[in-house]
Amino acid sequence: MKKLFLLLFMLGAGLTSQAQEDWRVLTTVFDQVYSLATDLGEQTDKVVAAGNVISVITGKGTISVQKKLDTSKPKDLNHYQYLLLTTAGKSILLDKMNAERVIETFQAKLLKLKNSLAENQDADVENILKDLFN
After folding, report:
1. What is the pLDDT of residues 19-44, one digit of tens each?
2. How far apart are CA 30 and CA 45, in angstroms?
3. DSSP secondary-structure letter at 120?
4. Average pLDDT, whole number, for the chain?
5. Exposed (0-12), middle (13-18) or buried (19+): which is 114, by Cβ within 10 Å?
6. Which residues pair with 55 in a beta bridge?
7. Torsion of CA 84, 90, 94, 100, to 10 degrees
8. Contact yes or no for 55/67 (Cβ under 8 A)
9. Is beta strand 53-58 parallel, antiparallel or unpaired with respect to 80-86?
């Protein structure tokens, strides 16, 4: 019985460690998306990154994802909570799976916007050069 308890304890500790590692990866991905949003925020007023919040302004309002330190966990774990926020005042605390989905969706949309801005800039430069040399 003692061996079974020890085995279950070790398995539980391993799962806890794995779960913490999964959340750390999510934090890294969020930080990368935040950096992308910061860069895009310098090019357009449709994206804002400030204070661990990434916001995208759409025709229907603003949708944001926030990363904040989970104060219910020991500080040294650096465990974060993720919230989905809307201009309508909705605030949804996300579980891990939904946090991943939301952050990946933000990343995909921001990358699409980045490509669109680059294409528009290329077209603007081309038009200016045509005007300059014609």
Report:
1. 445 667 899 999 999 999 999 999 98
2. 20
3. H
4. 82
5. middle
6. 48, 64
7. -30
8. no
9. unpaired
70 φ, ψ (degrees, to nearest 5):
-80, 105
The crossing angle, in degrees rounded to 10, of helices 2-41 and 96-133 is: 20
Classify 56 as helix, strand or coil.
strand
Q: Which helix (H) or strand (E) holds 49?
A: strand 47-50
DSSP-assigned letter for residue 54: E
Q: How far apart (Å, rounded) are the C-alpha atoms in residues 91 and 110?
A: 21
What DSSP letter does each residue of 59-116 carry, written as one string?
TTEEEEEEEEE-TTS-GGG--EEEEEEETTS-EEEE-HHHHHHHHHHHHHHHHHHHHH
pTM of the prediction?
0.75
What is the rounded distance in angstroms from the CA atom of residue 46 to the CA atom of residue 108?
Answer: 15
- Burial call 33-65: b when 16+ CB within 10 Å, e when fewer: bbebbeebbeeeeebbbeeebbbbeeeeeebbb
